Amino acid sequence: MQAKHIGSEASSARAVVYGNVVYLPAIVADEDSLTAGDQTSAILKAIDKLLQESGTSKRRMLAATVICSDVRLFDEVNVRWDAWVPWHDPPACTFLVAKLSGPRKRVAIQVTTAL
Protein backbone atom coordinates (compact mmCIF):
# COMPACT_ATOMS: atom_id res chain seq x y z
CA MET A 1 0.00 0.00 0.00
CA GLN A 2 1.38 3.41 -0.96
CA ALA A 3 0.77 6.72 0.77
CA LYS A 4 -0.89 9.50 -1.21
CA HIS A 5 0.53 12.97 -0.50
CA ILE A 6 -1.80 15.88 -1.12
CA GLY A 7 -0.41 19.35 -1.73
CA SER A 8 3.18 18.73 -0.72
CA GLU A 9 5.03 21.87 0.30
CA ALA A 10 8.66 22.43 1.28
CA SER A 11 8.59 20.66 4.64
CA SER A 12 5.21 18.97 4.87
CA ALA A 13 2.35 17.60 2.82
CA ARG A 14 -0.99 19.34 3.34
CA ALA A 15 -2.46 15.87 3.92
CA VAL A 16 -1.35 12.25 3.67
CA VAL A 17 -3.75 9.41 2.93
CA TYR A 18 -2.59 5.93 3.91
CA GLY A 19 -4.98 3.01 3.86
CA ASN A 20 -8.29 4.33 5.13
CA VAL A 21 -6.79 7.12 7.24
CA VAL A 22 -6.14 10.79 6.46
CA TYR A 23 -3.39 12.54 8.42
CA LEU A 24 -3.21 16.34 8.54
CA PRO A 25 -0.27 18.26 9.98
CA ALA A 26 -0.82 20.86 12.69
CA ILE A 27 -2.56 23.74 10.92
CA VAL A 28 -2.02 27.37 11.94
CA ALA A 29 -3.87 30.47 10.74
CA ASP A 30 -2.30 32.54 7.98
CA GLU A 31 -3.27 35.82 9.65
CA ASP A 32 -1.25 36.44 12.83
CA SER A 33 -3.16 39.53 13.95
CA LEU A 34 -6.36 37.58 14.67
CA THR A 35 -7.50 36.71 18.18
CA ALA A 36 -7.07 33.13 19.35
CA GLY A 37 -10.76 32.50 18.70
CA ASP A 38 -10.59 33.91 15.19
CA GLN A 39 -7.39 31.96 14.46
CA THR A 40 -9.24 28.85 15.60
CA SER A 41 -12.15 29.57 13.24
CA ALA A 42 -9.74 30.11 10.33
CA ILE A 43 -7.93 26.86 11.14
CA LEU A 44 -11.18 24.88 11.35
CA LYS A 45 -12.26 26.26 7.98
CA ALA A 46 -8.90 25.19 6.50
CA ILE A 47 -9.27 21.73 8.06
CA ASP A 48 -12.76 21.34 6.56
CA LYS A 49 -11.34 22.20 3.13
CA LEU A 50 -8.37 19.81 3.44
CA LEU A 51 -10.59 16.98 4.64
CA GLN A 52 -12.97 17.54 1.73
CA GLU A 53 -10.03 17.50 -0.71
CA SER A 54 -8.93 14.23 0.90
CA GLY A 55 -12.35 12.61 0.52
CA THR A 56 -13.55 12.74 4.11
CA SER A 57 -15.00 15.13 6.71
CA LYS A 58 -14.85 16.11 10.36
CA ARG A 59 -17.63 13.59 11.03
CA ARG A 60 -15.02 10.84 10.61
CA MET A 61 -12.36 12.29 12.92
CA LEU A 62 -10.45 9.77 14.96
CA ALA A 63 -8.05 12.01 16.88
CA ALA A 64 -7.22 15.68 17.29
CA THR A 65 -4.56 17.72 19.02
CA VAL A 66 -5.33 21.33 19.89
CA ILE A 67 -2.25 23.37 20.75
CA CYS A 68 -2.38 26.82 22.35
CA SER A 69 0.54 29.14 22.96
CA ASP A 70 -0.91 30.16 26.36
CA VAL A 71 -3.16 28.19 28.70
CA ARG A 72 -5.29 31.32 29.22
CA LEU A 73 -6.45 31.04 25.59
CA PHE A 74 -8.12 27.64 25.97
CA ASP A 75 -11.56 29.00 26.89
CA GLU A 76 -11.61 31.22 23.77
CA VAL A 77 -10.40 28.35 21.59
CA ASN A 78 -12.72 25.75 23.14
CA VAL A 79 -15.83 27.82 22.37
CA ARG A 80 -15.00 27.62 18.65
CA TRP A 81 -13.76 24.01 18.84
CA ASP A 82 -16.88 22.78 20.68
CA ALA A 83 -19.18 24.52 18.19
CA TRP A 84 -17.33 22.85 15.28
CA VAL A 85 -16.80 19.30 16.57
CA PRO A 86 -19.61 16.82 15.86
CA TRP A 87 -21.07 16.48 19.35
CA HIS A 88 -22.32 12.94 18.75
CA ASP A 89 -19.00 11.63 17.36
CA PRO A 90 -16.17 13.61 18.97
CA PRO A 91 -12.58 12.51 18.30
CA ALA A 92 -10.09 11.46 20.94
CA CYS A 93 -8.73 14.93 21.70
CA THR A 94 -5.55 16.13 23.38
CA PHE A 95 -5.07 19.74 24.48
CA LEU A 96 -1.50 21.03 24.80
CA VAL A 97 0.28 24.26 25.62
CA ALA A 98 3.39 24.84 23.53
CA LYS A 99 5.42 27.55 21.84
CA LEU A 100 4.26 27.88 18.24
CA SER A 101 6.11 28.87 15.06
CA GLY A 102 5.78 32.62 15.54
CA PRO A 103 5.14 35.06 18.38
CA ARG A 104 1.63 35.86 17.12
CA LYS A 105 0.63 32.26 16.35
CA ARG A 106 -1.79 31.41 19.14
CA VAL A 107 -3.37 28.14 18.00
CA ALA A 108 -2.50 25.03 15.98
CA ILE A 109 -4.78 22.06 15.37
CA GLN A 110 -3.88 18.63 13.99
CA VAL A 111 -6.47 16.00 13.08
CA THR A 112 -6.55 12.41 11.88
CA THR A 113 -9.66 11.06 10.16
CA ALA A 114 -10.98 7.90 8.61
CA LEU A 115 -11.94 7.89 4.95
Explain what the structure shows.
Helix 1 (36-54) packs parallel to helix 2 (74-84). The longest helix is centred in the middle third of the chain and has 19 residues, at 36-54. This protein is an alpha+beta fold and 115 residues long. Strands 1, 2, 3, 4, 5, 6 and 7 form a 7-stranded mixed beta sheet that branches. It has a single domain, classed as 60s Ribosomal Protein L30, Chain: A (2-Layer Sandwich), CATH 3.30.1330. It contains 2 helices and 7 strands. The relative contact order is 0.25.
Question: Could you list some keywords that capture this structure?
Answer:
2 helices; 115 residues; 60s Ribosomal Protein L30, Chain: A; single chain; seven-stranded mixed sheet; alpha+beta
Instruction: Find the structural class using helix and strand composition.
Output: alpha+beta
Q: C-alpha Rg, in Å? A: 14 Å
Indicate the proportion of strand residues.
25-35%
> What is the helix fraction of residues, given as a range?
25-40%
Please write the CATH class name: Alpha Beta
Within the CATH hierarchy, at the fold level, what is the topology?
Answer: 60s Ribosomal Protein L30, Chain: A
Number of strands: 7
Structurally, how many domains make up the residues? 1
Low-confidence stretches: none
In angstroms, what separates the terminal alpha carbons? 15 Å
Helix count from the secondary structure assignment: 2
CATH level-four homologous superfamily name: RutC-like
How can the largest sheet be summarized? 7 strands, mixed
